[in-house]
Amino acid sequence: MISHLQGNIIEIQDSELILDVHNVGYTVQMGTNQLQLLQQKKEETISLAIYTLVREDDIRLFGFPDFTYRKCFTVLLKVNGVGPKAAMLILDQLTPIQIAQAVTTQNAAAFTQISGIGTKVAQKLLLELQDKLAFLPQETLTDKTTIKPQTTTLEVLSALQNLGFTKQVAEKALNKVQDNTSDFDTLLRSCLSYLHQLK
């Protein structure tokens, strides 16, 4: 059972990457947004938490940025009607904390706004995940942050970096204005307005 891999990225394509670990290439499935973040780390050594799925005719490795994501993945798999593909999709759009916040506040829209997750599955997630996320830091679950897909924030983060801002500065701006909107254009303008005020 593989639980962790550390190595260099050989290739990224579609929904997977090939990781070179001591001259052995491992195919690891990951979410689209996570792979997008790793595009800039092809020359670096990366570390991934791994979930190994073993079936009669198949062995697949699913990769995550840390073991909190991996643990959340295993919990999602226990929800009736949620398979590896859906669980990976959810974690590619929402962080474990955002998932816990959605369950705590019974916010089904946090899940249904994700393409491929319908109302029935969202309701099952809200019901079956109760008391299953105790491994997460409890003080963060009362945060009032608006829950939205990571796609928007990643796109805005990338846009700000393309405009010449460092990742640290861009993330600071996003943290300051993230409650304002989930719309890309408006969120980007809000970030730029905040950064202009700092000058």
SSE blueprint and pairings:
Layout: E1 4-13, E2 16-21, E3 24-29, H1 32-38, E4 45-55, E5 58-64, H2 67-77, H3 84-93, H4 96-104, H5 109-112, H6 119-128, H7 150-162, H8 167-177, H9 184-198
Parallel strand pairs: 3-5
Antiparallel strand pairs: 1-2, 1-4, 2-3, 4-5
Helix pairs in contact: 2-3, 7-8, 7-9, 8-9
Radius of gyration: 18 Å
How far apart the termini lie comes to 52 Å
Main pleated-sheet profile: 5 strands, mixed, barrel
- Strand composition percent: 15-25%
**Main β-sheet, spatial strand arrangement:** 1-2-3-5-4
Can you put this structure into words, describing what you see?
The structure is a single chain. This protein is of the alpha+beta class and 199 residues long. It has nine helices and five strands, in the order βββαββαααααααα. The chain has a five-stranded mixed barrel with strand order 1-2-3-5-4. β2 (16-21) and β3 (24-29) form a beta hairpin. α2 (67-77) packs across α3 (84-93), α7 (150-162) packs across α9 (184-198) and α8 (167-177) packs across α9 (184-198). Residues 139-148 have low confidence and may be disordered.
Q: How would you briefly describe this protein structure?
A:
The chain is α+β, with helices and mostly antiparallel strands and 199 residues long. It is built from nine helices and five strands; from the N terminus they run βββαββαααααααα.
Keywords, separated by commas or semicolons:
199 residues, 9 helices, globular
